[in-house]
Specification:
about 25% helix; Rossmann fold; 4-stranded mixed sheet; about 290 residues; 9-stranded mixed sheet; 15 strands; alpha/beta; 9 helices
Length: about 290
Amino acid sequence: MTPKGKLIAIGGAEDKGTDLEAGIIKRSYLNFFEIGILKTITNLLTDKNDRIEIITTASSVPDEVGEQYIAAFGKLGCGNAGHLKIRVRDEALEQVNIDRLKACKAVLFSGGNQLRLSSIFGGTEFLDILKQRYQDEYFLIAGTSAGAMAMSLTMIYEGNAINAHLKGEVKITTGLGFIAGVIIDSHFNKRGRFSRLAQAVAANPGTIGIGLGEDTGIVVKNGEELHAIGTGSVMILDGRNIHHNNIADIEFDQPISVENIIVHIMAKGNVYNIRTRKFQWADVEVKPAE
């Protein structure tokens, strides 16, 4: 069944439109208010008064991060953003938080530690409601960095980029499961995570690896179309046609070798279909449902 909602996965370090003159953030991106990823999220809302809940469960500084996002959305004309504070599993079960989830039109999972997201929300009514609303309604689920990585059914939760070419250095578990058949990695270019995602795909060659650069992301339409957004690049690793793969035969801490991973590099405006595994040059403007 085709989901009616949309996913927005962001590679991290997205420009929140903060005050440059005050030295709060140093950036070299283009004008945030023209191309910013957060503006893409607000444009996807059917109404600027729609409620967005910021979920900072993954973050080690949740209050600070929540305030930053509320301020950023306010600058974009969306004054109805709230901070849904869930730090432990019991809070995910509280009725007040479930009621807030049922009343909003979008959620955004902040960065931090993606294992906190899967361990706190996994198997809860809160996660069931998120999945149901994404499937049955025009509902937006956004996530940045850890929040993006946790979207997939198969999730990387650990792996040092320097040693990611060695078997066993990349740790994989079950994510939140909004989208199957993919593995998402963030901060992809800046932190040199190609080998990390390549090992994850080599171990799961039926999946498609999605490497998100910083201030870059994808909008997932119809559960299968990846629309690239932002100022950087999105890398697609397709392992379906792998010929040689030694990962099952070598000892741990030995280097892997893989033949014929297909790589695509997407920029803003490109589209990749994870079902047909086809790349499109031109994008169609992403608009909310009527």
